[in-house]
Specification:
- The structure holds three protein chains of three kinds.
- By secondary structure, chain A is of the alpha+beta class.
- Chain A is 39% helix and 19% strand.
- Chain A has 15 helices and 17 strands.
- Chain A starts with 10 loop residues before the first strand and ends with a helix.
- By secondary structure, chain B is an alpha+beta fold.
- Chain B has a domain at 5-41: Histone, subunit A.
- Chain B has helices spanning 5-14, 21-38, 73-77, and strands at residues 62-63, 83-84, 87-91.
- A two-stranded antiparallel sheet of chain B has the order 2-3.
- In chain C, strand 10 (441-448) and strand 11 form a beta hairpin.
- Chain C is globular, with a radius of gyration of 21 Å.
- Classes of the chains: A alpha+beta, B alpha+beta, C alpha/beta.
- The interface between B and C is large, with 54 and 69 residues.
- The structure holds magnesium ion and zinc ion.
- Magnesium ion (MG) binds at residues 26, 169, 211 of chain A.
- Zinc ion (ZN) is lined by residues 28, 141, 169 of chain A.
């Protein structure tokens, strides 16, 4: 597997100089299907032991696989979302090895002829930088079951509920160069599959997991020996695992050692990777085409039909947000990360000031959602409500400061922001008479300050503050400023 | 291509067959005879021949995504030599 | 009532219809024959209670005028078919005590057609063998003996229990499976008929897999017509088997017109192998003459890659088997032999559970698929398979059917060939090509040799053209004259 990336990435320091980290990822994304890839048992997460198991999944004698059309379609959809080549003919192979959670003694996977070939993913990084990560392939395969080791003193228990669930294995080229890039890539991949609706991206339930291949090299040098870190199940862990593993490898090489190509496990509690001793035996998977299945042939017309049904994907949406709403790349990137957030934003921004809407969604709404650990779909302030707050800012009904209070009230107590403003008398005072009255009072009460401000115009802010206080914050700040300047003859 | 004792041992390991030391040598002999016999295929030039993928000339049929199976943990596990609470039980696996 | 067991399926069907006897009587006669024939070791499991229960239901249906096509006809089932809640062993120790919670599609089709199950028939372990001597449950004895001798002979294999039970009148018919000749070769050496249908004709769902790309179920019975009747019921398109083909199942009996005038019969010259016994050559010539006399046109054809079929088979079949048999690991069903850890549990279980021949094939299969050897063996063999299939395609441009011997010789003695695997493999030399190309092949009883042992002729057809095989097969059968009974020397 060769890297398609030509530019040098960020470097890290070692005792002997700078090092470059080279990372490739194999991401297993569970297809969002009702039934399993080759059997009619449910693919739903969480069930009694061996309840979501058919005789096919348990590899009972004489049982045969029949493929789920929907899973094939989702793989094609995902491939199209990765701008990848869809292969008209692909083949299911058997990957042979013995393990208690692999009932047939082989996993049905795709080896030489995967359903999806080369594609790419554009990954945005902070600071407006973007990298293109090559996708080598995507193939369909079965998930394994689960062994539980802590239920019994000398037995492991096997539950086959996961066995046979459809996975898409998405293999990147080693085009990533830092923990940050690796996490950003995974985040982007997750966004794409969630946009497509092909995988829920739920890393906690394991519906998306990454095997991370890490090696280090001197900048521009040949690729080093890589270690594969298995089943890393959060963005944060990906970053931690890369950091730890790169440092471990650099330390070994700098101490005169050599990296052994091996499979390692990430220990989330310790933040370390460690060798998987059980893999000491060299594998020989004896792949061969599964004779129970014929080659999978896809017609162009079907692929075309799937292509037409694709939603607008994050990259296109981002470009449109920048073009139509005048957003900067960073803000647009943040907004399109989740399809729901982008949709929320668009509803807020419809016919309103797009930049203002983006600011509010990103800073106020996301800030608040994050704090409470809520998803945008669960926001107590609807897009409609936030939109009307922004409309009220736009037409001067309320100030930005009051708007935050209105948002807070709407969040805590609910209700229509317009009514909140009316009922609580939060409307901005634009009546110059009332403002003038307040100004006159402040000037009259503070003759010394009036003298000072003439010499030091920056003190105007103090007067503004006093007037705002006197009006309960409702005075239009622009009007206050202008009137004050006139009255103070500044 | 000839098979020796070490190869038989390696292949038996891959196939998860316990193989007593004294049977390795005779088995290597048997395998070698069979392999030598099948190697007559090398007489045929197959450089421009596609390997057969399937004898039936039909395309792979597909199922709809409907749950039609499962919810029978007893039937699934009742033949198991060892188990508990509808789990299959095996000697403890490390890692 | 012993004459009931002498009936053909067709005659028994008519007798039941005319109420000359009841299904219960028919079942009882066979149950008795099975009890008397235990010395042949044809059955692994007898199911007399089930048979009587099913027969009573058949009698009820016949009385109610609701008879189905196979109503009340008692059959034996090769122990490779999973039968619900009935022990299914595949002739192996490793499936010890295994009672499937499901019924194979083919047997389900038979029961749905009204057939009655007499029990499960012995077979070579996992269908790997040509003599039924690899069964964990012991060898099956052929009901036929050489004239004036009492040497025990093999019934062929792997469907040896099926063949022996049919020939010995313990069942009216039986299911078999054929991966390299396992229906046709035992049929030939026990003097009965058996057909391996086109790959994809019968569902493989619920049949313990040996080599998935070659395995095919088929009927074994005493006449060609009986096979036609059974196959009509066994065959179906099965959505649960991705390789089952969705084509109409014709009424095979109606295709048996007895008419072969103008039919082009190909004689492949490559089947005239070195060291072919004179009696086999003579039999072949007889078959050619019979068809000529019936008005068929004899055409010499060439199948140039024939000699590579057997070695290609002994790469592909073990390769697929090595993977198919990986599921027998002592975890979910069958035998478990403890070990100090999971790996040694696997190794001990599989070493104790699989017999010698199965282990040998697993090793070969594992070896030919392993890194570095895959292209040289497995891919090479699959390429030969393409050439073999092309040979047939070309021949079938010129002819409608091919005629060959079924087996290179008559039944041999138990233990005679067990020491040399390759000489054992050679029993399938005429049958295995058909499996590699997925075509249908039928073995038809064609008389006895000088020693009084039955021999068979094979007809090979175009894909999904079993009808022609039944039609031509019946003409050969008629020309050969009725096969005598093998006697009843084994009865207790
Ligand atoms: Mg992988
Ligand atoms: Zn994978």
């Amino acid at each position: 597997m060769s890297t398609t990336r030509t530019e040098t990435g960020p470097l890290v320091d070692g005792a002997t100089g700078k090092w470059e980290i080279v990372i490739g990822m194999e991401v297993h994304a569970q297809v969002l299907s009702k039934a399993k890839l080759f059997s009619g048992a449910s693919a739903a997460f969480g069930a009694e032991p061996n309840a979501h198991v058919s005789f096919v999944d348990a590899a009972m004698p004489g049982m045969l696989p029949v493929i789920n059309r929907y899973c094939v379609e989702q793989a094609v959809r995902t491939g199209l979302g990765l701008k990848a080549q869809i292969n008209n003919v692909s083949v299911f192979d058997r990957k042979n090895y013995f393990y208690p959670d692999l009932p047939a003694g082989y996993q049905i996977s795709q080896y030489k002829s995967p359903i999806v070939g080369e594609g790419e993913v554009i990954v945005d990084l902070p600071g407006g930088r973007a990298i293109t990560v090559g996708i080598e392939r995507l193939h369909l395969e079965q998930d394994a079951g689960k062994s539980l080791h802590d239920q019994h003193p000398h037995m492991s228990f096997v539950d086959l509920n996961r066995a046979g669930v459809a996975l898409m294995e998405i293999v990147s080229r080693p085009d990533l160069r830092s923990s940050e890039e690796a996490a950003a890539y995974l985040r982007k991949l997750r966004a794409i599959v969630r946009y497509l609706g092909t995988c829920d991206g739920n890393m906690e339930e394991g519906s998306m997991r990454a095997d991370v291949n890490v090696s280090v090299r001197k900048p521009g040098g040949p690729l080093g020996t890589r270690c594969e870190i298995k089943n890393v199940n959060s963005m944060r862990f990906v970053a931690q695992a890369v950091e730890y593993e790169a440092r471990r490898q650099i330390d070994i090489i700098e101490a005169g050692g050599k990296i052994d190509q091996e499979t390692r496990l990430f220990d989330a509690k310790k933040g370390e990777t460690r060798s998987m001793r059980s893999k000491e035996e060299a594998h020989d998977y004896r792949y061969f085409p599964d004779p129970d299945l014929l080659p999978l042939e896809l017609e162009d017309a079907w692929i075309e039909q799937i292509k037409k049904s694709l939603p607008e994907l994050p990259d296109d949406k981002k470009a449109r947000f920048m073009r139509d709403y005048g957003l900067n790349a960073y803000d647009a990137g943040v907004l399109v990360q989740e399809r729901e957030s982008a949709a929320y934003f668009e509803e807020v921004a419809k016919g309103r000031d797009g930049k203002l809407a983006a600011n509010w969604v990103i800073n106020e709404l996301f800030g608040r959602l994050n704090k409470e650990g809520l998803e945008v779909g669960k926001s107590p302030v609807s897009a409609d409500a936030l939109g009307s707050i922004i409309a009220m800012i736009g037409d001067g009904t309320i100030s930005g400061k009051i708007a935050k209070d209105v948002f807070e009230i709407a969040w805590e107590e609910g209700g229509d922001p317009k009514e909140i403003v009316e009922k609580r008398g939060l409307r901005q005072v634009t009546d110059t008479g009332a403002i003038e009255k307040a100004i006159d009072e402040v000037i009259a009460a503070n003759p010394a300050k009036v003298e000072q401000v003439k010499a030091k115009p920056a003190m105007l802010g103090w007067f503004v503050g006093q007037v705002m206080q006197a009006t309960g914050g409702k005075a239009n700040p622009k009007a206050v400023n202008e009137l004050l300047k006139r009255k103070l003859a500044l | 291509m000839s098979v020796d004792k070490t190869t038989v041992k390696r292949v038996a390991k891959l196939a998860r067959l316990a193989f007593p030391e004294e049977r390795l040598e005779p088995m290597a002999g048997e395998l070698n005879r069979i392999l030598a016999w099948v190697e007559q295929l090398n007489e045929v030039d197959t450089s421009s021949v596609e390997p057969m993928t399937s004898v039936v000339k039909v395309s792979l049929k597909m199922r709809e995504d409907v749950v039609t199976d499962g919810n029978q943990p007893i039937a699934v596990t009742e033949n198991a030599p060892e188990g508990e609470d509808h789990f299959f039980a095996v000697p403890k696996v490390v890692e | 009532m012993s004459e009931l067991t002498d009936l053909t399926i067709a005659d028994a069907r008519d007798g039941l219809k005319k109420k000359s006897f009841s299904a219960r009587e028919l079942a009882d006669a066979h149950i008795k024959a099975i009890e008397k024939g235990r010395a042949l070791n044809a059955f692994v499991t007898e199911t007399p209670d089930l048979a009587r229960k099913m027969a009573l239901e058949s009698d009820r249906r016949i009385a109610a005028g609701e008879a189905r096509p196979l109503e009340g006809l008692p059959l034996g089932i090769k122990d490779l078919f999973c039968t619900k809640e009935v022990l299914t062993t595949a002739g192996s120790h490793i499936l010890d005590g295994f009672k499937p919670p499901y019924e194979s599609t083919v047997t389900r089709n038979l029961w749905d057609a009204g057939a009655v199950m007499l029990g499960k028939l012995n077979m070579d372990e996992f269908a790997m063998g040509s003599s039924n001597e690899t069964s964990y449950y012991g060898p099956v004895t052929n009901p036929w003996r050489r004239k004036g001798a009492n040497t025990k002979l093999v019934p062929g294999g792997s469907s040896g229990g099926s063949a022996a039970a049919v020939a010995a009148r313990m069942v009216l018919g039986a299911t078999g499976t054929d991966t390299g000749g396992s229906i046709r070769q035992p049929a030939a050496v026990t003097g009965i008929a058996g057909i391996k249908p086109t790959y994809g004709r019968c569902s493989r769902w619920g049949i313990v897999a040996f080599a998935s790309s070659l395995d095919q179920a088929g009927p074994m019975a005493r006449t060609v017509r009986d096979c036609a009747i059974m196959l009509k019921a066994m065959a179906s398109h099965d959505p649960m088997d991705s390789t089952s083909v969705n084509v109409r199942v014709p009424d095979y009996e109606r295709a048996m017109t007895g008419e072969v005038r103008g039919l082009r019969v190909g004689i492949p010259k490559e089947y005239r192998i070195d060291g072919m016994p004179a009696e086999i050559e003579a039999l072949w010539q007889k078959g050619i003459q019979w068809l000529k006399d019936a008005g068929a046109q004899i055409v010499d054809v060439s199948l140039p890659h024939t000699k590579y079929a057997l070695p290609a088979y002994y790469i592909v079949a073990p390769a697929e088997a090595s993977s198919n048999l990986a599921r027998y690991d002592g975890v979910r069903y069958g035998l478990r032999v403890p070990g100090k850890d999971i790996i040694s549990m696997y190794e001990n279980t599989r070493a104790a559970g699989f017999g010698r021949e199965v282990q040998r094939r697993i090793l070969i299969g594992t070896y030919v698929l392993s890194a570095g050897y895959y292209d040289a063996y497995y891919i090479k063999a699959q390429k030969l398979r393409t050439l073999i299939a092309q040979d047939f395609d070309q021949a079938f441009e010129k002819v409608d059917v091919l005629l060959t011997p079924t087996a290179p010789g008559p039944a041999f003695g138990i233990g005679e060939k067990t020491d040399d695997p390759i000489s054992m493999y050679l029993n399938d030399v005429f049958t295995v090509t058909v499996n590699l190309a997925g075509l249908p092949g039928i073995s038809v009883p064609a008389g006895l040799n000088n020693e009084g042992l039955p021999l068979g002729l094979q007809l090979i057809g175009k894909a999904f053209d079993e009808s022609t095989l039944f039609r031509v097969g019946e003409v050969i059968e008629r020309s050969a004259g009725p096969t005598p009974r093998p006697g009843t020397w084994w009865e207790v």
